[in-house]
Design a protein that fits this description.
The protein has a 7-stranded mixed beta sheet, sandwiched between helices. Helix content is 35%, strand content 23%. The longest helix is centred in the C-terminal third of the chain and has 18 residues. The protein is built from 5 helices and 7 strands, in the order ββαββαβαβαβα. The chain is an alpha/beta fold and 202 residues long. Bound molecules: guanosine-5'-triphosphate and magnesium ion (MG). Guanosine-5'-triphosphate binds next to α1.
Length: 202
Amino acid sequence: MTLLSLQRARFNLAAHRLSQLPADEGVEVAFAGRSNAGKSSALNALTGQHALARTSRTPGRTQQMVVFVLDEAHRLVDLPGYGYAKVPEHMRAHWRKEIDAYLNCRASLHGVVLVADIRHELKAFDRQMLHFCAASGLRCQLLLTKADKLSRSRAATAVQNARTLCSREGWDAGVLAFSSSAGTGVDEARQAIVSMLAANGD
Ligand SMILES: Nc1nc2c(ncn2[C@@H]2O[C@H](COP(=O)(O)OP(=O)(O)OP(=O)(O)O)[C@@H](O)[C@H]2O)c(=O)[nH]1
Ligand SMILES: [Mg+2]
């Protein structure tokens, strides 16, 4: 377990529905967040592999559950972004249902990395996810990404505001300023994710 390293991630499969995911064994950490928040970019920064997860300027890029394996018992999953209006409604409804079922039923899911743009207030989806994780005993690490777009002091204020919100609501989530392009928070986020993967893992 001490050898677990995100840098060893390799692409496994892309699923359109839950039934296509790998057997529900071992330990999984999922990357969730609103469309275009920077989930796939965060995955690439954390794994140190620039082309591992597909990123795009166009919201709605990831339209599958993309599975990356670290070893036979540990996986990372890139979830489709939530809520992009230009994705057709039937697709959005499909993903609402699949992500909901995934979060509720996936026994190997041990933690969620919630990715949100540091420049904006946490939106309803983000708050629901934080609440859901707290209510269901899932560990949650909030990455406030695109920190390179703010001054250090404004980034620090955003982190503090999110921490205050979490403690007020009783959400036990870690909060970090993050930047995929500048590398901010990458080492700390790696440690947090490895620790989620290690929990009850073996
Ligand atoms: N400046 C800056 N841009 C970023 C950062 N992370 C992501 N981006 C940009 O934000 C856009 C969206 O990034 P993605 O990683 O594709 O976002 P996503 O959350 O996976 O999006 P969907 O797959 O559509 O849900 C791209 O243009 C990225 O280059 C960051 O840390 N800093
Ligand atoms: Mg994506």
